[in-house]
Design a protein that fits this description.
13 strands, Nucleotidyltransferase, domain 5, globular, six-stranded mixed beta sheet, homodimer, 37% helix
Chain lengths: 311, 311
């Protein structure tokens, strides 16, 4: 099977590796994401050149933050914390010309979902979603064995399902009360602060004792769970209820064979408790929630597998 | 182009017609849905026999309430107000044997979405949804030109997106606070009653004057709109806000080219007001909401077109 260079471009770092089938056969080389679009292009070219030389790779698969066009050739927008001008880079064109190799670019959440579907814990599930619970909530959706891309490639924004009628909490996207605003790691901390504020200072016990509420973090609460802290249990339960709302929507809409949970906050999920909350909110048969297999390397592997499929 | 018998089986009536391309070329024959599964089968056989004789039709396409299996051969559940035992009928098997013609069965909301995509107001939109706003909320979803069916055929339950964290209103599905419980025709009337109850009796004006709140109907409010009744405008605005929540979810998830609105309540939609509410809640480019072309005959036409595609 051909060797492919897999690359994952995020807002804080860029990772490179050589992939064969679903296996990373090189070390994973990581560099801080440069501050300008031009430097990103230079870093990518150097990284690709080194790996091609060393492994005789036959293609380049790139997972990136942002929306990617339907032709898998370039980023078109929503690049968040990547530098200005990044969405103007003609990545496929430049790399094809420079390296004379096939190139494929895909959104990182989509690539991760494809990796889980093709070779991970959702292997063989023709209808499956991978939801990343981190600072935000991202998603990739497989329908009938293919990525759901939408009209221009911007589909699968599962983090932006509205949670309430009243406009109570602004989301990072500029809209109101998205799933991400309540059920991401960021949302978790806001939930915790809101719940804590409602407890009169003299009644604050456990992790809240002598705590400045505005300094309360998601980490504090997750730690509190280990000691059965009453407040932490409450906050966690509220979070799982919000999680259940979004997952119920996705299950009722897609009737998937599985939903794969990925990202830092996925590790805090009590699958049994969450599944039982979801069960109360769905109108169709139960869907398994399962942990991701690939986690940090999912983008690299998914992009490589997507390219392999096209070769 | 071949002639196809199109049939739509609902809880209150069964409609039959002969379809050529997307056109109904016969009268639409309608009968009350019988009370037992056996009588339904007999009615269907008689109706089909008559139409085949008269039009020399080359196939049978059936749209039905309930979930239909992936092979388009029989109903498997969720038949709501159809008689007990209906889901045990081997419709495709029976009709294939009796009439020696190809038979296809599809869920009615799916068939309607296919009709709009293939020949209606969403013609050529490879990613489009048709949402039926009636007593409940139903949906059919086209992804890359194909119906989204899910693991067993039960997907596209778009009426059951949760609207709120608190469990405030029971949905007909047994779950809590589904979109359908707030934004269907039934939900509209409940919203109206709840809003009215909060107004002190001595302050009730317009359509509320001397009205028994428990007798308030969706029809009353829609009528009130024509006279710019203040209470009616408020209820309608609340409804469109709830509508916008569900549509924003669907747009953020699917990035479709269009969403087609069908059903009795679709006629009450102010597209401009609704689109502007949705715009506030989406993170991707705007999606056109458009009225349906086929309405009552969408199931008949969609089932016929689905069969034609397979011939």
């Amino acid at each position: 099977m051909e060797k492919i260079i897999g690359i994952d471009i995020g807002g804080t770092k860029i990772n490179f590796a050589c992939v064969q089938r679903e296996n990373i056969i090189s070390e994973v080389i990581s560099c801080k994401t440069p501050d300008t679009a031009e430097e990103i292009l230079n870093s990518l070219c150097r990284g690709i050149f080194d790996l091609i030389e060393k492994y005789d790779a036959k293609g380049i698969g790139i997972a990136t933050a942002g929306t990617v066009d339907l032709e898998n050739s370039k980023v078109t927008g929503s690049t968040g914390n990547l530098p200005k001008g990044y969405e103007k880079l003609e990545l496929k064109k430049v790399f094809t010309e420079n390296f004379k190799l096939p190139v494929l670019i895909e959104n990182d959440a989509n690539a991760a979902a494809f990796a889980e579907f093709k070779a991970g814990n959702a292997k063989g599930h023709l209808n499956t979603l991978t939801v990343t619970l981190g600072t935000g909530i991202g998603g990739g959706i497989i329908v009938d064995g293919k990525l759901l891309k939408g009209k221009t490639g911007a589909a699968a924004e599962v983090g932006h399902i509205p949670m309430t009628y009243e406009k109570l909490r602004k989301c990072s996207c500029g809209s109101w009360d998205c799933w991400e605003a309540y059920a991401s790691g960021t949302g978790y901390a806001i939930n915790a602060k809101e719940i804590a504020q409602k407890i009169p200072p003299e009644k604050r016990q456990g992790i809240l004792k002598n705590k400045v509420i505005s300094e309360l973090t998601t980490y504090d609460v997750i730690e509190g769970l280990k000691n059965n802290d009453f407040f932490s249990i409450k906050v966690h339960d509220v979070w799982e209820e919000y999680l259940s709302m979004g997952f119920a929507s996705l299950i009722n809409i897609f009737e998937p064979e599985s939903i794969v949970l990925s990202g830092g906050m996925a590790k805090a999920v009590n699958y049994e408790a969450l599944n039982s909350k979801i069960k109360e909110r769905i109108v169709i048969a139960e869907t398994k929630l399962i942990p991701a297999q690939f986690e940090n390397n999912a983008g690299i592997i998914g992009a490589a597998l997507l390219l392999l499929e096209k070769l």
